[in-house]
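This follows on from our talk about sequence and fold. Please put the record directly below this note.
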Amino acid sequence: MSMTQQAAPAVTAPPAPGPKDTDGRTARRPLALRLLARPEVGVFLGAVAVFVFFLVAAPAVRDGSSMANILYQSSTIGIMALPVALLMIGGEFDLSSGVAVITSALTASMISYQLTMNVWAGVIAALVTSLAIGLFNGWMLVKTGLPSFLVTLGTFLILQGVNLAVTKLITGNVATDDISDMDGFDQAKAIFASSFDVGGVQVKITVVWWLLFAALATWVLLRTKYGNWIFAVGGNKESARAVGVPVTFTKISLFMLVGFGAWFVGMHQLFSFNTVQSGEGVGQELIYIAAAVIGGCLLTGGYGSAIGPVFGAFMFGMVQQGIVYAGWNPDWFKAFLGVMLLGATLINLWVRRTATRR
């Protein structure tokens, strides 16, 4: 019986591993360029520079109580700069945020005092009012298609007039009455305007709230579906709508977040000073927007972070108090802010161009 032999297939050893071919799309970018691509890098470097400058120019800044005061000033700006930054990443901005803070404080004060109610009734009424203002801004924007500049400019003028007129009508003065002896005041003050001791230095509770809100906003932007929606509607809302992003909900909710921030800062002001001046708040909206822009947010939307505005607000607080501690004329404050805004914008532009350069 014959047998047929079959040749066994030759086994070829695998080639020795060598360097992989990469192109511009697959090559891993250097760590330095990846860091520069982060929107908060430029403002972080600027904040360090400003901090070092005032450490040298104003020795009083080195004192613990001085630094606590700087952090407090930064926190009152930073709490509002966070939702304003999220709104800007979503492609919009709010010119009514400054006077909305005063509207919130006036509402809580007058409802509590004039109706002789527990101050928490006024606090809750102020929250509803602030959220309603944000809802109105967002609803007008999405229903009319008008630019947020026009919508919120109109709200700014309305609130400014209402703040003054209603306060004069109800109290007969441009300021509200003192509510420090009313029921619930001490409990509300503990939440919104208290201080605690750290190594013999009094630190305001707003610093803690500021950092907690920043951590929460960062988590929302980077780890949640809602954060993806914010970037999507800011980049291109029509494309976002085409892939199922709820553009209307996202835009309105961002304006309501600004309303929440206005409520919180308004409550802090009320329970810090016990009374509210109805004409305040004008111009603060530009400070909040500038802190967000310095923090790396673009006016065109779709780009930014929550950490950047933290450093932006710190720069504002550092300059505001540093000028005082250095013994300089405080009238130069706005000039410094203008220089900071332009400088930070140019740095952010350079950072983004460097990060995207192959």
Observations:
- Strands lie at 195-198, 201-204.
- The radius of gyration is 26 Å.
